[in-house]
Structure formats: C-alpha cells, structure tokens
Specification:
- There is one protein chain.
- The protein is mainly beta.
- The protein has a single domain (2-317), classed as Lipocalin (Beta Barrel).
- It is built from 2 helices and 24 strands.
- The protein has helices at residues 2-10, 12-15, and strands at residues 20-21, 49-61, 64-65, 78-91, 99-116, 129-130, 134-141, 144-146, 149-157, 160-161, 173-174, 181-182, 185-193, 196-207, 209-210, 224-225, 229-241, 244-255, 259-261, 264-266, 272-285, 288-301, 303-304, 307-317.
- The strands form 4 sheets. It has a 16-stranded antiparallel β-sheet that branches. A 4-stranded antiparallel β-sheet has the order 15-16-19-20, with no helix packed on it.
- A hairpin with a 7-residue loop joins strand 4 (78-91) and strand 5 (99-116).
- The chain is globular.
- Keywords: Signal.
- Residues 1-26 form the signal peptide.
- InterPro entries: FApF (IPR025737).
- It holds the Pfam family Phenol_MetA_deg.
Length: 318
C-alpha cells in the first residue's frame, strides 16, 4: 500500500496538468486546459489580429485520492506548484463563409514545484522548466448579432500537443510527456443579454504511444499509452459596472479509457475531477483585459484534490 500510495503521489503534477509523469498507478494524462480559459471564451475581444496572453497559476493540494475517491494513506500529501502559460494567437482578417482562420501557440512552463509524502522519497523531487508546446489551427466564426449586440460566437480548434519538453524515461517527474497528443475543442459564448453571458469549451483528448516509457514500469515495459479523456471549462459572468464583470467558473474532467502498457489495459487508474469557484474580469480597454479565476476541486479520482488560482492577462496588438 505504501508503494502504491507513493506512486500515486508521483502522478500529482500530471494530474494538475503542468508536469508529466509516467507510472503504472497514474493515468499519465498530458498538459490539458483545466480552468485556464473562462469568460467570453467564444470570440477574441477585439476581432482579428495578434494577441498575447500570459497565464499565471498557483495550485495547492493536501489530499490525493485513489480510484474510489478515498484519501491515499500517506504521512503527508502536499502538492504546491507555481507555473504558467505564455500564449500567442493570430486571427486572420480574411474570412470564408463567415469564418476566420487562425493559429494558436502555447508554451507551458513551471517555475517551482514541490511534493511531499512525509517519507523522504527523493523520487518526488520535481523538475522545473519548459513543458510541451501546444499548437492549434482554428476557425473563428463571426458573431451572430441580435438587436442589442452579439448573441452567439464560437470557434473550433484542432489543438496538438508536441513532445518538445524535457523528458527522461529514468525520471519519475518530467516537464515533457514523451508522446504526441491531440486535444481539439469547441469554444462558444452565448449572450443572455448585453451584460450577462455563458461560455464553455469542450475538449476531447487522445494520446499517442510513448515508445520510451518510464523505467519504473519495469524492464518488460517497452511502450505506454495514456488514456483518452473528456474535459470541459464553463463560466458565466455579469457586467456589474463598465469594465468589470464578476461570475462563476468551473471545470470537469473524466478519463474514458484505460492507460495501456505494452498494448494491454491497466484498469483502475482512470482520472476524474470537477471544480467550481468565483471569478472576475476587468477590461482596461477593448485591447487589454485582466481575469482572475479560483477553483475548488471535488470528486477527484486517481489525482490530487485541491485549489487552483489562475491570473490571466490578454493584450491585443493594434
């Protein structure tokens, strides 16, 4: 039990989507968007052009759950990570059938990461640095207009996660995953009225085979493959005064297939979690926006259950 609990803790940084690990007791999901996007997600705030976005995140947890949702038996279960994403987006002014093509590039990075199981396990020492690059061609549709302004806007993106981050199969915790993934999504915003909106982003995650699997899987392991998953971000906000919006935001993750080792399913390791919390958005102008989102997790399976805080700044070059 002690060995299994320790290996679950090794999966904690993967579970929060910032550093990848490979463990028979972990689902090994790669870098995914859990709560990074929220309000007014269906359309860029200032139309076509170049956008730069900086995300900063702090995640902390003192609980790691097993497959039944019970707390793992360890002396300590501490996870603390400070990380971020640097994003560059271009939306073309040209359009075909009301849709604008564009490209999205994201570079994750981890400034500090700490885990502690209370047993002095040096394998839990987490590496920092750059993670796997996300690249996504997209199609942004023009808003559907109503008598008082936009009513609906949406976008499709075919997001690819490239294994560019540092990866060493002898290490339990790495900034990179060592395998390719695709994580396409549909993002949309519905205006209930000019001041009140509801937004969502629906993802489907598929992962390729890792032909250099973590050596902790055993000498007989020649390949591993993370399971497929669905994950959703959802948010609603209301403009309480010019430039200031407040609301609620949340996310949901459910792994839908088992991970594989040497092509064989490893059962009982699927991840799940959901979270909800408050958020706010302040627009300095049409071209500069600051967002704050907090999330309190629940219902975790095979992953930590903690608190996530995201600060996001968006700038449109004009």
């Amino acid at each position: 039990m002690k060995h299994r609990a320790s290996r679950l803790l090794l999966s904690c940084l993967t579970a929060i989507g910032l550093i990848h690990t490979t463990s028979a007791s972990a689902s090994d999901l790669p870098n995914i968007n859990l709560g990074f996007t929220s309000f007014l997600d269906g359309a860029p705030p200032a139309g076509s052009g170049w956008y730069a976005t900086q995300y900063l995140e702090y995640y902390t947890a003192d609980r790691i759950n097993d497959n039944a949702g019970n707390k793992v038996a360890l002396p300590k279960q501490n996870v603390d990570v400070f990380a971020g994403l640097t994003q560059l987006v271009y939306q073309s002014p040209f359009k075909i059938a009301g849709a604008h093509p564009g490209i999205d590039v994201i570079l994750p990075w981890v400034a500090s990461a700490h885990t502690d199981d209370g047993m002095g396990d040096v394998a839990l020492n987490a590496r920092t640095g750059f993670g796997d690059v996300l690249i996504g061609p997209f199609i942004q549709f023009d808003p559907v207009m109503g008598p008082d302004g936009p009513r609906f806007a949406h976008r499709f993106e075919f997001q690819i996660i490239a294994p560019t981050g540092a990866y060493d199969p002898s290490k339990a915790i790495n900034p990179g995953s060592g395998f390719w993934s695709i994580d396409p999504y549909w993002a949309a915003t519905f205006w209930v009225n000019p001041k009140w909106t509801v937004s969502w982003r629906l993802h489907y995650l598929w992962n390729a085979t890792n032909n250099r699997p973590y050596q902790g899987l055993g000498a007989a392991a020649t390949s591993s493959q993370a399971g497929q998953a669905l994950h959703i971000n959802i948010a609603t906000e209301y403009e309480v005064m010019p430039g200031l919006r407040i609301g609620l935001n949340g996310y949901w993750l459910r792994q839908i297939t088992d991970m594989k080792v040497n092509g064989e399913n490893v059962s009982g390791q699927r991840e799940a979690v959901w979270a909800i919390g408050p958020g706010a958005m302040y627009s300095f102008s049409q071209h500069d926006h600051l967002m704050f989102n907090a999330y309190f997790e629940a219902g975790a399976r095979n992953r930590p259950e903690g608190t996530r805080v995201v600060l996001r700044y968006v700038h449109h070059f004009h």
